[in-house]
Design a protein that fits this description.
This protein is α+β, with helices and mostly antiparallel strands and 504 residues long. The protein folds into 3 domains: 184 residues, D-Maltodextrin-Binding Protein, domain 2 (3-Layer(aba) Sandwich); 111 residues, Dipeptide-binding Protein, domain 1; 201 residues, Dipeptide-binding Protein, Domain 3 (Dipeptide-binding Protein, domain 3, Roll). 22% of the residues lie in helices and 24% in strands. It contains 12 helices and 21 strands. Strands 16-20-15-19-17-18 form a 6-stranded mixed sheet. α11 packs antiparallel against α12. The longest helix is centred in the last third of the chain and has 18 residues.
Length: 504
């Protein structure tokens, strides 16, 4: 885990942005920070309630539903009250949670998940296969944050102590997609199976440790978490700056200087938020894969991650996060920065247009830096900054040579939308008869064959370069200095490994 202590500016736009869904686009803005200090020491948890209580932010008038809510602060709290069949760790690996075991049919289309016994919702209602199936069906709602994950699911049904999913095509990564929180009901405050229960005493909200929780309640660092009830979006900034709120989940890749300054601890976590350079592969100069490969090599990803994104990003030469065990370091090194590679293609002075969404300060800055780097390599690049509607219209019409894109991938890093024929985000119109088979092989493989399938897929993508990955942006958890320690946040749960937290 990484830790940083520094003086920073909090940007309102960072704190008020909606929680990004898998497969969606986002905008952000930049901030600077010194390098992080590594730490891995464990500590003993205090036996009694801390003198300074842990206080988190909540919006009582907004929904707390972990699947249907759109309020970021309330969604941040969700893992304390709700649990999924699996959790996703900091290396994007599936960890069994409410699922005790599972089996897969011979055709790899039917998955049977056996539920952990003795699990109840906060009112004592047992977690049954039918209840789990109903909760997962809620995630199919188009308004759900998780709807995209279940697009390949044909049916969900419950059985005695089991929930059964039938797929339209094999997907060995299905457990990674099933960290979806299971909630009983579709109201604003549904019941969950998690370690804490949301309580309301005279309008004062808190999270109270559940004595009936299936896990070890004694391992929780605090028995009660106070919730600061907020009503307006901008109150989140002031509540944290004043010390009223102990922790917030933010995007620190921006450059805005709005807000107040102070001394905080920052805990970065890897995310699936991919920034990439897209090519018009259907016409023009970038129709040639050799040109695309060369342009990809002429981009200094490390410099972009360090300067534009203030070290809150991980440079990536392939569209897979470097923390993943499947990341191919050898391949990535062969794709390292080399602007001289453009020389042999006789591209000097050739004009290119690079589109970027003007509503994102950080992406605009990144586009300018990419253009500068390509110009130093000999290309003539014009950056066109467009409002969101015009930007997406130009992408749809393929009225570009290059574009700077951003996408939240699912935790299995499925690239189908970006590169598959007819993919919703395949703006460059890249068509290839080989890629569908490689994607299918990767999706189906397990164990050691999966490593081989991943290697084949990413090697081919590097050869064809339908997109040029730039970096994966980090998420960040900010805590008041000295208030909390030993955090191990993940993209989907900032309270991951909560039992290891130290609350002085």
């Amino acid at each position: 885990m990484r830790r940083q202590i520094f003086i920073l500016f909090l940007a309102l736009s960072l704190l008020l942005s909606a929680c990004g869904s898998d497969g969606g686009a986002s905008s952000s803005s930049s901030a600077s920070s010194p390098p992080a200090e590594d730490h891995s020491d464990s500590v003993s948890l205090p036996p009694e309630e801390p003198a300074a209580p842990l206080t988190l932010a909540a919006y009582p008038s907004a929904s707390f539903h972990p699947v249907l809510s759109g309020n970021k602060a309330n969604l941040t709290l969700a893992p304390l009250m709700y649990e999924g069949l699996f959790a996703v760790d900091s290396q994007f690996q599936a960890v069994p949670l409410l699922c005790e075991s599972y089996t897969v049919s011979e055709d790899r289309l039917t998955w049977t998940f056996t539920l952990r016994s003795g699990v109840t919702f906060s009112d004592g209602t047992p977690l049954t296969g039918e209840a789990a199936a109903q909760a997962l069906q809620t995630a199919l709602d188009p308004a759900s944050r998780y709807a995209g994950r279940l697009s390949g699911v044909q049916s969900i049904r419950g059985a005695e102590g089991q929930v059964i999913l039938t797929l339209s095509q094999p997907n060995s990564s299905l457990p990674l997609l099933l960290d979806i929180p299971l909630a009983l009901g579709t109201g604003a405050r549904p019941l969950g199976t998690g370690p804490y229960l949301l309580t309301d005493s005279g309008g004062s909200l808190s999270l109270t440790a559940r004595p009936g929780w299936w896990g070890d309640s004694g391992s929780l660092p605090v028995r009660e978490i106070r919730l600061a009830s907020l009503t307006k979006p901008d109150e989140l900034v002031s509540a944290f700056n004043s010390g009223e709120v102990s922790l917030i989940d933010v995007d620190l890749t921006g450059t805005s200087e709005l807000g107040s300054s102070g001394s905080y601890q920052v805990w970065d976590y890897p995310s699936t938020d991919l920034l990439y350079l897209g090519f018009n592969a259907s016409q023009g100069l970038c129709r040639d894969p050799a040109v695309r490969r060369s342009i990809a090599r002429a981009i200094d990803r490390d410099a972009l991650a360090e300067t534009i994104f203030a070290r809150h990003a991980a440079a990536a030469a392939i569209p897979l996060h470097p923390v993943s065990p499947l990341y191919n370091e050898e391949l990535a090194k062969r794709l390292s920065y080399d602007p001289s590679i453009l020389t042999g293609l006789e591209l000097k002075g050739r004009p290119l247009t690079l589109l970027v969404n003007i509503e994102s300060t950080a992406k605009s800055a990144a586009a300018n830096e990419i253009a500068r780097q390509l110009q130093e390599a000999g290309l003539r690049v014009t950056v066109e900054r467009l409002p969101w509607e015009e930007y997406t219209a130009a992408l749809t019409a393929r009225d570009f040579d290059l574009y700077l894109g951003e996408v939240y991938l699912t935790p299995d890093f499925d690239l189908s939308a970006l590169i598959a024929p007819g993919g919703a985000l395949n703006y460059g119109g890249w068509e290839d008869g080989v890629i569908s088979g490689l994607l299918s092989a990767f999706r189906t493989a397990e164990g050691e064959p999966r490593q081989s399938a991943a290697s084949s897929l990413y090697r081919y993508l590097c050869q064809q370069a339908p997109i040029a990955p730039i970096c994966f942006k980090n998420g960040s958890v900010l805590t008041q200095y000295g208030r909390l320690d030993q955090l191990n946040p993940t993209q989907y749960n900032v309270f991951y490994d909560l039992s290891q937290w130290a609350v002085p």
